[in-house]
Amino acid sequence: MRKIKTETIALTGITAAVYMAATLAVSPIAYGSVQFRISEIMVLLAWVNPAFAPGLVLGCALANIFSPLGIIDLLFGTFHTFCSVMMIKRTKNMVMASLWPTIFSFIIGLELYIAFDSPFIVSTLWVMLGEFICITLIGTLVFTLIRKNDAIMTKLKSY
């Protein structure tokens, strides 16, 4: 059995806490059919270093506990983030990696269809728009700037 290092546990906890806090800070626009989760920018950390993936999924789960949709968002939203970060960490190109949450937006569209009987396609398209803006437009810009700082990149890759 593989031992989990204290550093790994700390990284997971800190990543989860930051994701959750960033989501809750903008909670009026973080949940529902039109979502602008600034915290979703963080999923690109899994592209830089896969060690961030567990904390991102845990952070999403913790944030979704506070969702107006309750358990259904905990299940669907966390599954969406899990699928997204698993693909992000396997994708070499940052822009391509940033598209996975948008691609998997149908999971949230299905959630909204089940919870509210919202039109599946319309709901999915609205979620896709929010994911695309937050991650592909804003997130890739942020991470392009981060990549130019060798000290930050060295630290992010060191975990």
UniProtKB/TrEMBL annotation:
Record-annotated membrane-spanning stretches: 9-31, 51-76, 97-116, 122-146
- Keyword annotations of the record: Membrane, Transmembrane, Transmembrane helix
Q: State the Pfam families in the record.
A: QueT
Query: Does the record bear Transmembrane helix in its keywords?
Result: yes
- Keyword presence, Transmembrane: yes
Protein name, per record: Queuosine transporter QueT
**Native source organism of the sequence:** bioreactor metagenome
**Encoding gene per record:** queT_5
